[in-house]
Amino acid sequence: MATKNSFSLKQKALLKSFRHYRKAETALHPLNYLFWECTLRCNLSCLHCGSDCHVDSEVPDMPSDIFLREMEHIAQKYDPTKIMVVITGGEPLLRKDLPEIGFKLRKMGFKWGIVTNGYSLTPNIYNSLVNCGLGAITLSLDGQESDHNWIRNRQDAYSKAMNALNLILSTPRVQSDVVSCVNKRTINKLPEIFNDLKKRGLKTWRLFTITPIGRALDYPELDLSADEFTSLMNFIQAKRAENSELTVNFSCESYLGTYEGKVRDGLFFCRAGINIGSILADGSVSACPNIDRELIQGSIYKNRFTEIWENNFIPFRDRSWTKIGLCKTCKEYKYCEGSGLHWWRMSDKQLLKCHYSEIR
Predict the structure, then answer these.
(1) Residue 51 DSSP code
(2) Contact 111/102 with Cβ under 8 angstroms?
(3) What single-letter DSSP state applies at residue 225?
(4) Residue 283 backbone dihedrals phi, psi, to 5 degrees
(5) What pLDDT, in 10s, does the model give residues 278-318?
(6) Is the dihedral of CA 193, 195, 200, 201 positive or negative?
(7) Does residue 55 have a pLDDT over 60?
(8) Which residue, 13, 231, 248, 322, has most beta carbons within 10 Å?
(9) pTM
């Protein structure tokens, strides 16, 4: 397996050329993904939730007409066929108007998808979403029955998620994947989970680790040790080398040194604020929804999204401010540029975790 300092000549060449691509992409910053945090309400209270969502949120759901008005303006300024709108939450299925919203997005030319825990996904709801142009769906599944129910804090969460997965896999034309939070309870069970998902016919499985924010701060057992994280990298590398019908990917959360090019489809590039933007439940504009709210760049209640996208986002496109602490003397900074921005706590400019430094 890879070791921390054993870069191949091919890897070095790829990393060097990729730096030029990343620089050009940052200068152009084309919007490719737009997250809409459609609600902060949720029907679960997951232990690893970074948003600390509740059944009844203090922040009301954004009215659909306000969101759609903003999307119409975006469609006038940019090519909507090149933008994927990802509806997230909270739990987006708690909104009853998603089919209508999705239909109007498709009519404008946008592709759209949702991220869901699957708890409320019934055949009727799913069919209505598909009939209104649903193009992609990501289902959260965090292990086998006892582990998934534990982290989701509900005893029927797993059975509901499995029903949702079977439903999703019955419609091959909708792009689907399962995303799983790997933690101390599941790190040694990944082969079993892989085999189960493969038998069910899943094609893409995406793994990520916990960000110690929100409710997750209260559960240290969610956080992998350095050795466990290295084990995760080795598992993914081995599964990808098998060329199985089920592709395993690590998330885009961090730079991985010699594992770059081996555990996901592309090289590390935190595209937050470069290709990825978001409209949050309260109208705030940022990049990925789980990035520190101190990096919010504006509000659609004050300015157009497109104006904010073009004129703000400086902290996302000039990341020289991240060259502090561990990053200041790191020889890999030129390839990493401060890791994924969701790892930064902005109140004291602290990088909460560096996966590269953990690799054994």
Answers:
(1) S
(2) no
(3) P
(4) 95, -5
(5) 999 999 999 999 899 999 999 999 999 999 999 999 999 99
(6) positive
(7) no
(8) 248
(9) 0.94
